[in-house]
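Please, structure for the following, as tokens.
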Amino acid sequence: MPDRDLTTAGSSSQERPANRAERGIFVPFTAPMLWGGRIRRLPGSPPELLLPSLTGRGTYVLDWRSAVAACTPSLHDRQLWARLSLLQHPTPAAVRGVVRKVALMGHAGRPAQAAAEAALEEQRAAIQSVKAALQARLPAPLDAPAAALLGGLAEALADSGIAATVPGPQSRQVAGLEAFCTDLCEWTRRVPAPSGRNAGLVVLAAARYNLASIRACLAALWPLLDDLPGLLARGPAGVRLMAELAERPDWLLDGWPPITALWASAPVKDRSALAAEIAAIFPVPALETDRWPGGAMDWDTVLRGRRLLGSLPVLAGTRLVEMAARNESLRAMTA
């Protein structure tokens, strides 16, 4: 069986798309053959599924019918795609919302259902915490229109937080990526060559680039709140600006939390194979991110290194069953 049985199922896509819409958003499928998949919906087009090649060279672009024929999606995956396909402008936050709704329905198991409930409660608490912190920065009570704007601003900034001292749920994902980089760095120093070291070094470079960009975006976002009255005076345009800027670290994190959770939970004996797997599917930011805070990173070298790695072994037999169980457990770890 060739690479995911997709050699004739769809076209290929460039490694670094021009913008976020072309890149797509990670979808936590449980079927092994859909692992690493992303949803993309370009203006005027139906939703597409992007699947990274297991060779690390390129991405397949499929419609859902082709994916069903080639990849055997689970019931959870079918329910998830049916709802994701209704999104006209998918974003990481929008996809996350749909993912949690499907988990609440029980399609990913009881642990994922409980994790989704906890994540939604955390999100509600984060909105209230950010709103209270923003209100504390204002010299006087707000009138009704300004209060509504403040509420919208709190929702936009709930994930990112508004300062290192008022973090949002996203801070835990950033910390997870930091820990992943530290652990992976130590592992690549200890593991004998080749034994996954080359794959680990490629993944480490990608993770570090992403982490640097995320930090730069957050560092550029939070100071804009220093003049909160002036920001609110701009009306809805000010809220839209902050929402767009707050989306940037979310896009850069997209696809990494499952990777970091998987690495943290993997036995040491499995990490060489896991490093090779991650190297084939880790997310790559769109070209437009080169103009964001932090500037351009040397992604060409990272992707060249990925292309030089060997292909992953074909998934079959008990390995498929093991991966399905693993992917379902990830749903509970990354709600």
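The longest strand covers residues 48-52. The two ends are 33 Å apart (CA to CA).
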